[in-house]
Amino acid sequence: MLKVRSWLSSLLVLAITAAPVMAGNNDARTANDNAATTASADPAASPNPSPSPSPSLSSSLTSTTADTNVTALLGVLVMKGVLAPTEANAIRNAAPTAQFQALVEALSQKGLVNAQDLSVISGAAVPEAALVNQAAPAAPAPPAGPTVISAITPLRVNPVDPPAKDGLVPAFKLGPVKMTPYGFVKATVVHDSSDPRGDDFPLPGFLNADTGPTADPAFHIKARSTRFGANFEWPDISSKLELTGRIEGDFEGNFSRADNRNVSAVRSSMASIRLAFARLDYAASDKTSVYFEGGQDWLLYGSTVLPTILETTQLAAYFGSLYERSPQLQVGLVQKLGGSRNFKFSPAFAISMPSEGNVPADATVSSCSIPATFVPGTATTIGCTSTVTDGTANQLGYGERQGSDSNNLEYEARAVLQFQLDPAKAVAPAYIVVSGFETHRASIVLASAIAAPAGSSAATIANYAAVKAQFPTGAEARSEGYGGQLAVSLPTRWATVSASAYRGGDLRFMFAGQTLSYFSDTLGLTNTASVPTIDRSGTGTVVFGTNGAGQIVAAPQRAIRGYGGFVQVGLPLSRLFNADPKGRNAGWQIYFVHGLDAVKHDDFARAKGIGVDGAGPYRSTLDAATLFYRLNPWMQFAFEGSLYSSYALPNESGIFTTKVAGVPSRTWRDLRTEFGPIFTF
Questions:
Q1: Which of 418, 494, 548, 601 sits a CA distance of 20 to 30 A from 157?
Q2: What are phi and psi of 655, to 5 degrees?
């Protein structure tokens, strides 16, 4: 607060010294000039309930014949959010001898100055140079070009360092709020040697058990990876508080079902939210900073260390990369430890929306009718129909409810040690990261859903009746999701190495675990009966059975355990070959990455019920090389060659029933190439 008062006192000194100069200037003007100025003023202007799109001195304050020093002072106070534009206008339009008193009264009413401050101001010595207007500064010289080519900077969407106070250079302002848009326009041509699902991004193979008569190669041209966003900064009178925010989106959302887009839906993907959060940082001391954040942001688990590749729709999801964005409330600490390597330690904790990513389906009821011409003992076709009784899929789309149905929050934690591994110029600091999460999900079965399917035998009908008698109000089955990660990001002037390793259960929502979530463990149960859940997501059922003690129970649902990670090496080619930092060859970089994502064999076999049929994928790998060339600060070209591979398990007889191009196969491969320009802003 003392710093704020000192700052305001300095501004008041400037106002005092400017007053006589202003009065002299006004005395030298003609009455006609003063009359014209009065006519141009707008003292009756009222505050706008919506923030001005670009508050500046010219748009917020009406121009009068007053001295430019006072105009500048009032403009600064408006920009800082100390005065409203109408308050500044009123002071500006006051008589020259009354402007200082009006300013003092306005600041006193806001509690920013008091009698002691005024006494300090009145006794302050005023430099003679402040009594005259300064000449306009010379035009700044053009910025010098870079003197060294930057090393490889890792992709860090979840950085450690807090934002600097007043560090955002605004493109424009919304009232007192600074705003700077950013983003990129990305257009790439893509070829996949095998794309059985028809997507323009890679997913593990064997999600479709057969690719058809060929491996199903495909071409795509993508523009929907284009991204847009804006950074925000709000003013605060405290030098210790910094309030920032971000909103970010892309065009990789749903494809349209509107009549005017039905034919062209393939190129009409919708805009969708990626990030939307605000963050408050408090500098407790010169070495300690704490923060609070609320909104949708990258999760603490997994997202701190990511690979740099051209394919950003999935970003190696289910091939070794681990990340997610989700609504959350987060708190954290950044502690400077010092030393020659500038060590910093940052622990953080968050509660987030409980999620596990299973897709719901509509509830249906099947009914069959026996034709009137039926003759006992003869083969007769019976017609059956299915009717939707609960449109959960239309309600939630690809959303979910099992996470929130668990009535538990999701917990995330992360600890980062940051330090300067290589002290050379233009080298980012290194990270060592430990992170983890824990969550739950629940499957709900309604009592009305516990019924034998149409056409069941008498024994099956009796079995379902016994289950319903045991669970007259319905049932619930639950499972836990959890995970741990160890990651490093080690930039040097020669190369940057990033690596991540993870292990956990039910990692589907975190883009790991081969898209799998949980399974019903029926081991030791007899007389099993499968009953659909309220949302039909995941396995879609809860299985009941009789245990060894003769009790009818719901089979426990268990998380499918998974593991994986990636290793990436990035080489700053231009720096290694001593290119001119100001020349056209300063923007060459190349990256090599290997990724792995897998689930445990026994969990996979039990989840898929491997018997007569085999299944996949239980493991997938990625090998890729990406070359970037930056033409200038706003445009770059990229080429990526990658090999995506997935592996299946055979049936109980050792025969592979998964097929590629109609042939039984253990391995699926997609040789993928992508090329195109990226324009940033």
A1: 494
A2: -105, 135
